[in-house]
């Protein structure tokens, strides 16, 4: 049924439809609407889940680690400071091979306090063993959340569904909310491969000395590799029932493009507009939206961008001392490909600053007019910065 | 008193604790009382090691090893999952050290008890971070040497009263127990198991390695801690109704302190002031138990 939904509530609807059994969360803007709606559903009987009102994000994820190891479907949501507080347990959830699903609303890290969109929070967790999926709009948020359970439960890894603060979490859009029966067909009840059971007592997550630890880590990477294939299969199955798919990376007019813009999240929507404008003026520009960030779809990206003569990556995030993080990953994916196109890194929109069509167009022209990238990252749309403060 | 549960063993022989480990004794008696239908959550502590490395386990019940500060929260999640699955039979137990209870895990424990989560939290108390090599915790008693309170910097602060902190939450059941009083320990574990809501048992578990004493002294020292009123055996219902379960002989504290290397630097004067603190705490407890009117 078509409804006008806030991005946050698209998540909540998906969690209800996924028949999640244990939910645990702690309030933080801009995530809070997701949990408020879910706690209403639990209170009024719309959902048969247990809602745990714990005393911190750390405990929210800890509780789900307990619940998931006990064999039930689980969900949490958080943002920035809350995600950072969970860091230790992010590793724990993946190391324990638990199919927990989390909605992560991208918000800037403090200080100074800033509640607006910025991907540095989730990207700083890229090495924690979670599958990461970046969404562009409300429908995709709902579909991706439902799909995540299929993906997580088949590879036994946790999944983060990621959406931009406000631009997506608080924006109302028409969203098709599927019928429960169709979702049940796509997503059967969770069948855990292992669980805590007094009839079959096992020890979980115990001491792992050097002679076994490395194999356990290797298995996680194997699961990540498998997740690349599983992602496509899950999308196909979803498409066959609901008629929608998004792809791990979505190429838009890349075949004949000389310059390809690489984006993620809501910046993609604005870039689609810029692409249309530039194409109308005869510019050979393409767009590559990266949705699946972990596992990073290296071969897909190589294949899709290698025909272009230049690649321009837009990052709403930054790794201090290095560069924008998507740019790093794209460079790393291309570096062993002989004669690959140069990668231009652009940093824009940190802390919720608008990334306008004018900024994206400027990025295009800068890339077109440059020979090779003269620096790892160009910060676009910033005012004059005093180096005296920068160096202090 | 006869121990009618003595035949049942839920621990395999061959754990990897130190000789004389009080925490191993505590576990063995506790499991006899709690039985097979139990899921145990163990945050980081000596017991993360004592239970054995992959692929072996010392315990015959399912165990979920977890991060240091998560004992209260992980058990919350296990309980919620069992409830959703319709399993009301299984008892969820968190088994944590004093560091994981008094210090880093206190927030998660306080949260769980405030929510009155239906589980049993056991703290085996060896009065320091033993797993990492005898560093002080807020459970380390006044007067003790540890590797972070060395030489003249011995701990000059009192041990946190964890039972009182939990009573402030109006926890349905809180009790102290000792490895030297197994009948009392077993009886309290059985009582706690039969109740619902949050329950807490604080087990005094001597540590020969960390307390700098011979391994065969473990039980004797634990017995003396009770007999000197240093660690009284009592229980509290609803955070209000106190019962003292054992009337100690009221020995002076000196001998208890003299037998342990961790206290060897203390002077007669120090011991006298410690005796005063112990007397004061004991009288306070008796007053709460209604055995003493001021
Ligand atoms: C977040 C975190 N900090 C520190 C540690 C290291 N660590 C593991 S066990 C432990 C001490 C445990 O002390 P306690 O809870 O008293 O149990 P004991 O080892 O004495 O049995 C410490 C500091 C850890 N595992 N996790
Ligand atoms: Mg300890």
Structure explained in plain terms:
The complex is a heterodimer of chains A (392) and B (294). Chain A is an alpha/beta fold and 392 residues long. Helices cover 41% and strands 18% of the residues of chain A. Chain A folds into 2 domains: 2-242, Thiamin diphosphate (ThDP)-binding fold, Pyr/PP domains (Rossmann fold), CATH 3.40.50.970; 250-390, Rossmann fold, CATH 3.40.50. Chain A has 14 helices and 16 strands. In chain A, the strands form 3 sheets. Chain A has a 7-stranded mixed β-sheet with strand order 3-2-4-5-7-6-13, sandwiched between helices. In chain A, helix 1 packs parallel to helix 2, helix 1 (7-17) packs parallel to helix 7 (138-155) and helix 7 (138-155) packs across helix 9. The mean pLDDT of chain A is 97. Chain B has 294 residues and is α/β, with parallel strands linked by helices. Chain B has one domain (22-288): Rossmann fold (3-Layer(aba) Sandwich). In chain B, 36% of the residues lie in helices and 15% in strands. In chain B, strands 2-1-3-4-6-5-7-8 form an 8-stranded mixed β-sheet, with helices on both faces. The longest helix of chain B is centred in the C-terminal third of the chain and has 21 residues, at 268-288. Chain B is globular, with a radius of gyration of 18 Å. Chain B starts with 21 loop residues before the first helix and ends in a 6-residue tail after the last helix. The mean pLDDT of chain B is 96. Classes of the chains: A alpha/beta (392), B alpha/beta (294). Strand 9 of chain A pairs parallel with strand 2 of chain B, so a sheet runs across the interface. The complex binds thiamine diphosphate and magnesium ion. Residues 97-99, 126, 128-130 of chain B line the site of magnesium ion (MG).
């Amino acid at each position: 049924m078509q409804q006008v939904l806030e991005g946050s509530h698209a998540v909540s609807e998906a969690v209800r439809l996924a028949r999640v059994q244990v939910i645990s969360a702690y309030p933080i803007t801009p995530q809070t609407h997701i949990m408020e709606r879910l706690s209403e559903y639990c209170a009024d009987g719309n959902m048969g889940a247990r809602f745990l009102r714990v005393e911190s994000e750390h405990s929210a994820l800890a509780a789900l680690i307990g619940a998931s190891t006990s064999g039930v479907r689980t969900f949490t949501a958080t943002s920035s400071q809350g995600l950072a507080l969970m860091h230790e347990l992010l590793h724990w959830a993946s190391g324990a091979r638990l199919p927990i699903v989390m909605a992560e609303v991208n918000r800037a890290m403090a200080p100074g306090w800033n509640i607006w969109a910025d991907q540095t929070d989730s990207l700083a967790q890229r090495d924690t063993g979670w599958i990461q999926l970046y969404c562009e709009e409300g429908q995709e948020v709902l579909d991706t959340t439902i799909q995540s359970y299929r993906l997580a439960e088949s590879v036994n890894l946790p999944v983060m569904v990621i959406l931009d603060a406000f631009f997506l979490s608080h924006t109302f859009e028409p969203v098709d909310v599927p019928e429960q029966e169709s979702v049940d067909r796509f997503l059967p009840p969770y069948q855990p491969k292992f669980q805590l059971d007094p009839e079959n007592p096992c020890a979980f997550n115990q001491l792992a000395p050097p002679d076994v630890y490395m194999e356990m880590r290797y298995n996680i990477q194997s699961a990540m590799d498998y997740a690349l294939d599983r992602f496509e299969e899950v999308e196909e199955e979803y498409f066959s029932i609901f008629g929608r798919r998004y792809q791990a990376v979505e190429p838009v007019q890349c075949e004949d493009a000389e310059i390809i813009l690489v984006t993620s999240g809501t910046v993609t929507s604005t870039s689609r507009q810029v692409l249309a404008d530039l194409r109308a003026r005869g510019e050979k520009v393409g767009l590559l939206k990266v949705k699946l960030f972990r596992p990073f779809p290296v071969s897909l990206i190589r294949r899709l961008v290698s025909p272009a003569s230049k690649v321009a990556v837009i990052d709403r995030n930054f790794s201090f001392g290095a560069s924008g993080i998507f740019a790093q990953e794209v460079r790393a994916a291309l570096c062993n490909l002989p004669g690959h196109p140069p990668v231009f890194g652009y940093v824009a929109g940190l802390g919720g600053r608008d990334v306008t069509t004018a900024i994206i167009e400027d990025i295009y022209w800068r890339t077109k007019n440059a020979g090779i990238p003269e620096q790892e990252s160009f910060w676009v749309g910033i005012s004059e910065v005093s180096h005296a403060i920068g160096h202090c | 008193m006869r121990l009618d549960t003595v035949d049942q063993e839920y621990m395999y022989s061959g754990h990897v604790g130190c000789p004389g480990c009080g925490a191993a004794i505590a576990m063995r008696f506790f499991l006899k009382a709690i039985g097979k239908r139990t899921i145990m959550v163990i945050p980081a502590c000596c017991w993360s090691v004592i239970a054995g490395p992959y692929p072996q386990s010392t315990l015959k019940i399912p165990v979920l090893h977890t991060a240091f500060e998560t004992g209260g929260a992980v058990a919350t999640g296990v309980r919620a999952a069992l409830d959703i699955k319709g399993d009301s039979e299984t008892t969820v137990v968190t088994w944590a050290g004093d560091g994981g209870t008094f210090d880093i895990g206190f927030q998660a424990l306080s949260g769980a008890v405030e929510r009155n989560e239906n589980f049993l939290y056991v703290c085996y108390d060896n009065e320091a971070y033993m797993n990492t090599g005898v560093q002080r915790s807020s459970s380390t008693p006044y007067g003790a040497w540890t590797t972070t309170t060395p030489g003249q910097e011995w701990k000059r602060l009192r041990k946190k009263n964890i039972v009182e902190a939990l009573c402030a939450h109006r926890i349905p059941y809180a009790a102290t127990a000792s490895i030297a009083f197994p009948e009392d320990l077993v009886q309290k574990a059985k009582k706690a198991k039969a109740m619902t809501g949050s329950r807490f048992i604080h087990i005094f578990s001597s540590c020969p390695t960390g307390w700098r004493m011979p391994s065969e002294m473990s039980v004797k020292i634990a017995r003396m801690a009770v007999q000197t009123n240093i660690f009284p055996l009592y229980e509290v219902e609803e955070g209000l109704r106190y019962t003292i379960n054992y009337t100690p002989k009221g020995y002076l504290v000196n001998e208890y302190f003299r037998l342990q290397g961790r206290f060897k630097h203390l002077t007669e004067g120090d011991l006298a002031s410690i005796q005063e603190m112990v007397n004061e705490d004991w009288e306070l407890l008796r007053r709460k138990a209604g055995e003493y009117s001021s």
